[in-house]
Amino acid sequence: MTISGFTFNPFEENTYVLHDETRECVIVDPGCYEKNEQAELTDFIRDNKLKVVQLLNTHCHIDHVFGNQFIIDTYKVPFLIHQADLATLQAVPVYAPSYGFPQYNPATPTGFINESDIIRFGNTELNVFFTPGHAPGHVVFYHEPTKTCIGGDVLFQRSIGRTDLPGGNHQTLLQSIRTKLFTLPDEVTVYPGHGPSTTIGAEKKYNPFLR
Known about the structure:
InterPro entries: MBL_Glyoxalase_II, Metallo-B-lactamas, RibonucZ/Hydroxyglut_hydro. This protein is an alpha/beta fold. The chain has helices at about 35-45, 60-65, 70-75, 85-95, 170-180, 200-205, and strands spanning about 1-10, 15-20, 25-30, 50-55, 80, 110, 120, 125-130, 140-145, 150, 155, 160, 190, 200.
C-alpha cells in the first residue's frame, strides 16, 4: 500500500489517498475546500490512473470534511464514518459560515464503520480502531503489512489532539492512545491529520503528554 498526502485549507489538514498495485484507492479526510485544492486531488488521481472506491473520515470536524460531498459527486463512492461522530458531522453546517466557510456543502454518510471492521480495497485490508477523545466517533486505520496508521487527530509528533471541542475528553483520548495506538509495534509510522508523520516508538519515548 502507498500513502499519498496533501495539505489543504487554512487549518493545514492532511488528506490521504491510500492506493495499491491494483490502482484501487480510498480517500481519507478530504479537506479540499477551494477549487484549486479539489483540482490538485483529482489531478493526482487521474494522473496516477487510480480508481476511487471509498471515502472515509477518521472524524468529522470541519477541517476534515470540507471535500466530502465533492468526492461523492465526483466519484460516486460510499462514504463511511463511525456512527458516534454523526452529530459532529451534522453540526458542521451550523458553524461553518461563522468560521468563514459559507460554501461548505454537507454530505450524508452511506454507512458506518466500527471497531474491528476491515476496510478492503484492491489487495489491501485496513483494520479499524475506535479511538474517541478528540471526537466522540474518532477512528484510525491501521495497515499491518506496511506498519502504517492513518491517525487523524489522536496522536501528533510530540503532541496529542485537542479535547476542548464539543464531545472531547482528555482522559478518554489518553486512554485511546495507550490502549489502542501504543499496543502497536514501535516501528509503526503514524500519519496524522496535521503536521509531519511520527512513529509509535518515538511518541512513547518523547511525547510530553504521555510520559
